[in-house]
Amino acid sequence: MPNQWPYQLRVTKYNPANRDANGYYAVDEWISPSDIGGTFNGELLTLEHYLNVEQAYIDTIMSFLEECQVETMRMFMVEHREMDSASSLYEQKFNEMAMQEDKVVQLDDVPTIGRMVLRDFAYCQLVATNRTFIHFGWDYYMYIGTVKETPYAIASAKENGLFAECYPSPYQIGEEDIIRTVEWGLKEEETIVGDEEVKGILREELQRALKLSNEHPVTGSFSINASQKEFFQRYLKHEMDFEKYDYYLWGGN
To answer: Do 158 and 242 belong together in one domain?
Structure first.
C-alpha cells in the first residue's frame, strides 16, 4: 500500500548532533513548560526563553501549512486537561477554544490550539487530509507529515532555531495496523473490567455509527451509547448490558 504521507519530519528544538549512536539525546535539556525556573545544561529556563521557543514551533507549523496550501484542518484524538488560571502560561482565550473531536479548525485558530497543546493544557492531532498532519508528542517533540516536499517550510524551521529531520511519526498508524477493541467498566467507576477486540468492521461503518466525518481515522477513545448497541453487539461475544456497564471503543496499536 502506498504511503499516504511520503514526507514525514521530526521537528524539534533538539540538535541531532547531540544524539549518540543509539539515537539517545546526550544533553540535559528542558522537555516541558513545567520545567520553567529550572536549570538545564548550566542555563536557567526563564519564561521569556520558553515563550520564544514555543513561538518558533508555532511559526514553523504555520510555515508548513502555508506551503501545503492548507485552508482548514480537523482535530483528532482530543484530550481535555485541567487548566490552572493562576499559571503564567494561562490565557483567557484557551477557555474560549472549543476542543471537540473531529472539529473543523480554521487556520486562525491553529496557533492557539498549538499553544494549548505545547503548554499541556489540552491534546490533539491536527490533520488536513491529503495535505499535511501535525502530531505533538511527549517531551516537546513534534512530527509533521506532508504529501509533497516542503523546502521553504524546512528552511523556516531552521531560521526559527529548530531542526527538521526525516523521521516517521510514531503517531501515524495505517488502517491495516489499527487494533480496535470494545471496553467496558462498571457504571460510575473508571476501571475497565473487560475488553474484546472487534474485527471485520469497515472504518466507514464505524464513522457512520459514531457520527464521525469520513476523514476521521477512528483512532482514540469513543463512548458507545445504548442506541448503538445493535450495531456493536453483532461483533461481540460479550452480551452488552448498558444498565450495568459503560462502553467505549478504543482504536490504536
So the answer is: no
Q: 461483533: which residue's cell?
A: 235
The three grid cell numbers given for residue 252, joined into one nine-digit string: 490504536
For residue 1, being part of any structural domain is answered with no
Identify whether the C-beta of residue 172 lies closer than 8 Å to the C-beta of residue 92: no
Residues 133 and 194 in one domain: no
**Cell numbers 475488553: residue:** 195
Give the model confidence (pLDDT) of 83-99 as tens digits. 999 999 999 999 999 99
Which stretches of the chain are assigned E, i.e. beta strand? Answer: 7-12, 39-40, 43-44, 72-80, 104-106, 122-128, 132-136, 142-146, 163-166, 179-186, 192-197, 220-224, 245-252
pTM of the full predicted structure?
0.94
Backbone angles phi and psi of 49, in degrees to 5: -65, -45
Is residue 157 located within the same domain as residue 236? no
Determine how many CB atoms are found less than 10 A away from the CB of residue 130: 10
